[in-house]
Cysteine sulfinic acid decarboxylase isoform X3 (Dipodomys ordii), 429 residues
Amino acid sequence: MEEGGGGPLGLLCRVGWPAKPALSRGGQNPRGEKLCGHRRAPDWRAETKPAVPTSARSPSPPQDFILMADSKPAVDGEPMDMEALLQSVFGIVIDEAIQKGTSASEKVCEWKEPEELKQLLDLELQSQGESQEQILERCRAVIRYSVKTGHPRFFNQLFSGLDPHALAGRIITESLNTSQYTYEIAPVFVLMEEEVLKKLRALVGWSSGDGVFCPGGSVSNMYAMNLARYQRYPDCKQRGLRALPPLALFTSKECHYSINKGAAFLGLGTDSVRVVKADERGKMIPEDLERQIFQAEAEGSVPFLVSATSGTTVLGAFDPLDAIADVCQRHGLWFHVDAAWGGSVLLSQMHRHLLDGIQRADSVAWNPHKLLAAGLQCSALLLRDTSNLLKRCHGSQASYLFQQDKFYDVALDTGDKVLGGGNKETGRV
């Protein structure tokens, strides 16, 4: 790493080992940062420790070792004023992204063709850092040439708007910059997620169950496919595809493309996706679903999952969930509902009838970042299961992380339910 080097949107730190890094007796370092109260790391640097024979001492850290708590970004060797920088950035965000970005008198986007935009932004990574003024100007440029999804005339996607409460939550979560695999690293967010998932399940109609937040509805759908396969063939976790017969899953021709992507990603193959006919309004036809199930069985495949859609991408259709649930019950199939867009109508007394039968599903994908204006990505996968299926399917029991002898309920260590180790606290924004 070169001293002072960095890209156009960032800075590289140039710091040395602090002269007096010892911790005080009050649980603070020399800068006053408090330590987490439940566990204190061994203070091998403290000056108050009794003398230790030279041969038994830990080696001194190298001179270029960076202790993050004692370092600050620098340009040309001079420490930056972090508070001043952030205040300037927040000022730009409020002026450009929030006030102008949500004003009907402003453009939705200052559109430029790709080559022209590259020249305007000068995105080539450099070996030297930039001044604070240059960084702030780049921040303005990023906002100026980006699409303002909070604009009242932004209609390009199934999400839009800028909710100030959602933005405030995202600022807090980003400033805390934590993952969420264990309670000890994210105690507040773990408890918040538990309550939010509980409420979402109650809206679906379940008094118990499980769930996780995922990085988007596509991943939620893929999780559901993986869980359905594991429930039917648990040996596949260890033995892989060789433990499986040819499988078949069923979905409408109006389904989200993530179903086909999931089949490819999970090794099932896109040929395993049986496309069920839809009526003129885009809703799955249950009679054709059952016909397709019988046909798959006759061809030697084993049906294992049906994915219905509540709020299709193009037509906004809601599949007849009760009738589809009847078919799934007759054939013993996992019933998944992709309600990424339409799930939020459960909050509407006028429209919630569109989801009649959703309580009979085994799993539901729901994206509050769509109709509820939560920040991207706020995507929930809800399960009716109470047998810890998520952890059994996805868990690896990493002993260095998920210790069983902690001083709190280790059921709160939810990281083994998901595939990502750096799972973000997306459900609170």
About this structure: Residues 1-49 have pLDDT under 50 and may be disordered. The chain has two domains: 1-14+69-156, 173-428.
